[in-house]
Amino acid sequence: MLSRLNLLKRHLPLSFGPARPTTPALSTSSLAPCSAPFAMTSASAAANLNFTKPIHTAACLIIGDEVLGGKTIDTNSPFLAKFCFDLGIQLKRVEVIPDDEEDIIEAVRRMSARYDFVVTSGGIGPTHDDITYSSIAKAFGLKLQLHQAAFERMKRLSRPHPMQPNFDWDTPSPGLTAKLRMVEMPFDENIPAENQALFVAEDMWVPISVVNGNVHILPGVPRLFERLLQHLKPFIVHRLSDPEGKGTFRFLFSTPLPESAVAPFLTELAAKVEPKGVKVGSYPRWGKKRNTVTLVGADKAYLESLVAEVEAGVQGKYVTKEDEMDLPDDKEHIYSQ
After folding, report:
1. Do 94 and 59 form a contact (C-beta atoms < 8 A)?
2. 164-175: per-residue pLDDT in tens?
């Protein structure tokens, strides 16, 4: 046992931030930096810029074989979509990919380069197929490193499973090795440690790992994903187009006309309001007698000024809910476009 402890000590990495007392038998893994163009110097420079630039656009990367295989329904991307909408961030892309290193590397590099705010979901648990941390580290030429503060919080805020009665935080074991996978995170030695992992909730040990300045790595468990994302808002609101957080507004109009009848008016309207940053949408409601037209934009006063014009143009009514004007027998009617 003593020789095993000595062997593990030699693999103990430097922790994120100031040194802390550590458990003597911790180990971690590392990845060799990848080749250019993601060399450490260029990656660090890009990351420092990404930490501070305004947030206008966002992308979401859902990682998990279970989603693609139909075992799990993705609820995290819809939650992120509403989060972004409420803050006035344009969510431009949502992708679902497998637990595959090459797919993760390609997708996260591309998204980080194109969008201001990238959120990943899934693949940061204790099992062999949880490869998100290692894959994203490799994507940007970084090593995995034990996040000591996260490990200390894990020990303080989590409890071993009842089916692991002999588990001990100070004794090397397969269970401890598995838990360490969740706190071995990508680390760039050229960037302040506090910028690379955010503890957004006092009662949660799980940090949000931030890589390349704009990639935010979140767990796939919906209740954790949602809570961490909600608590992330104070960390990014100052970088929004509207720091007051007024967000985006969606105006709904209920119309009895088919889409083909309102299309000419909406085409003209869309061209008129596009310079003001307003988008016009039309959505058929199959099986209902009324369809929905939407206006989406950040200028609430301007949207309000369009209400009467749109109501007349679609022979409809401004509503707060899509089904506000539905009648009991609407569900029996098959609507024609």
Report:
1. yes
2. 888 888 889 999
